[in-house]
Amino acid sequence: MGFEPYLHFQGTCAEAMAFYAKLFGASDLFIQRYCEMPGVPPEFAASDLVMHSALVAGGMVLMGSDFPPGVEGEAQKAVSISRSVPDLATAHRLFDALATGGAVIMPIQPTFWSTGYGMVRDRFGTHWMLSGPAVEVEGPRL
Asked: What sections of 62-135 are H helices per DSSP?
């Protein structure tokens, strides 16, 4: 059993998930809005906000929703999504796309564990940690 990140947005879930689906090459994107749920309460009937969404990319699932109508919260305030990639070119491509309209926290650079690692907060408020290939280490590995 694995962990599946579930992100919360303030009205930008559909846009964010469509962006992530395209960026990460998702094979499937599901979006259901509050106004579409069975027995929808009257206060949700006119809401275009996303109640639940999910995408599958590279065998991994990423889910999300907007906060319900009338509920306040800060999107992804203290959570990061970590993504390992096969090469530095992919790391830079993803990093640059996520940084557009967002904020670079740490540019992609070599670390003691990776040939390239960087952190960025995208325009939707999601924090990402992108890691390229591991550094080759001599001797036994734990």
From this structure: 88-99
127-131 and 117-121 beta bridge pairing: antiparallel
pLDDT in tens, the chain (142 residues): 678 899 999 999 999 999 999 999 998 999 999 999 888 888 888 889 999 999 999 889 999 999 988 888 888 888 899 999 999 999 999 999 999 999 999 999 999 999 999 999 999 999 999 999 998 766 565 5
Contact 80/125 with Cβ under 8 angstroms? no
Closest by Cα among 122, 130, 20 to 75: 122
* Cβ neighbour number for residue 132 with a 10 Å cutoff: 23
E strand or H helix at 107? strand 103-109
Rg (CA), the chain: 17
Task: Check if the beta carbon of residue 118 is closer than 8 Å to that of residue 107.
Answer: yes
Q: Tell me the C-alpha distance between 2 and 37, whole Å.
A: 27
SS3 92: helix
